[in-house]
């Protein structure tokens, strides 16, 4: 499974739009406001786990989702935990190529949200 990308691919509008165009991608991003495993996302959205893993991979590659670390599952296995990297995404189609502007999630917001959900 991919980790967070910082090699410039996350600013590629085509990759971002392609990832968002896939079924369940938006639902995964909405559900990943707090750190969740692929299994938890799959259960929350009620989609097959294999589909969830594919969408997660695409969203991570597009820079919209990041792996925040690993934790033990109920079965005692180490699982990746994911969270979305942004709260808003604006797409501008007025030029020859689409441009994106993002409202990134700050670490402070992540920590505050984590405390509120504990």
Mean of pLDDT: 82
Order of helices and strands: HHEHHEEEEH
What's the CATH architecture name?
Answer: Orthogonal Bundle
Sheet with most strands: strand arrangement:
1-3-2
CATH topology: Arc Repressor Mutant, subunit A
Treating each run of at least 4 consecutive H or I residues as one helix, how many helices? Answer: 5
Query: What's the CATH first level?
Result: Mainly Alpha
Number of strands: 5
Q: Quick one: biggest sheet?
A: 3 strands, antiparallel
N-end to C-end Cα span: 27 Å
Low-confidence stretches: 1-10
Tell me the radius of gyration. Answer: 14 Å
Query: How many separate domains make up the residues?
Result: 1
Class per helix and strand makeup: alpha+beta
Describe the global form: globular
Beta-strand residue percentage: 25-35%
The CATH H-level superfamily is Winged helix-like DNA-binding domain superfamily/Winged helix DNA-binding domain
Residue share in helix: 25-40%
Characterization of this structure:
The protein is of the alpha+beta class and 118 residues long. The protein has one domain: Orthogonal Bundle (Arc Repressor Mutant, subunit A), CATH 1.10.10. It is 40% helix and 25% strand. The chain contains five helices and five strands; from the N terminus they run H-H-E-H-H-E-E-E-E-H. The strands form two sheets. A three-stranded antiparallel sheet has the order 1-3-2. The protein has a two-stranded antiparallel sheet with strand order 4-5. The longest helix is centred in the middle third of the chain and has 13 residues, at 49-61. The two termini are 27 Å apart. Residues 1-10 have low confidence and may be disordered. Pfam families: HTH_20. Residues 95-118 are annotated as: Disordered. InterPro entries: WH-like_DNA-bd_sf, WH_DNA-bd_sf.
């Amino acid at each position: 499974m991919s980790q967070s990308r910082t090699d410039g691919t996350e600013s590629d509008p085509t990759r971002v739009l392609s990832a968002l165009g896939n079924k369940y991608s938006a639902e995964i991003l909405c559900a990943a406001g707090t750190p969740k495993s692929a299994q938890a996302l799959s259960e929350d959205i009620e989609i097959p786990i294999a589909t969830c893993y594919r969408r997660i991979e695409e969203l991570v590659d597009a820079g919209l989702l990041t792996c925040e670390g690993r934790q033990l599952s109920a079965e005692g296995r180490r699982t990746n935990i994911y969270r979305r990297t942004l709260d808003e995404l604006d797409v501008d189609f007025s030029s020859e190529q689409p441009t994106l502007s993002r409202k990134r999630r700050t670490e402070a917001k992540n920590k505050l949200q984590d405390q509120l959900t504990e």
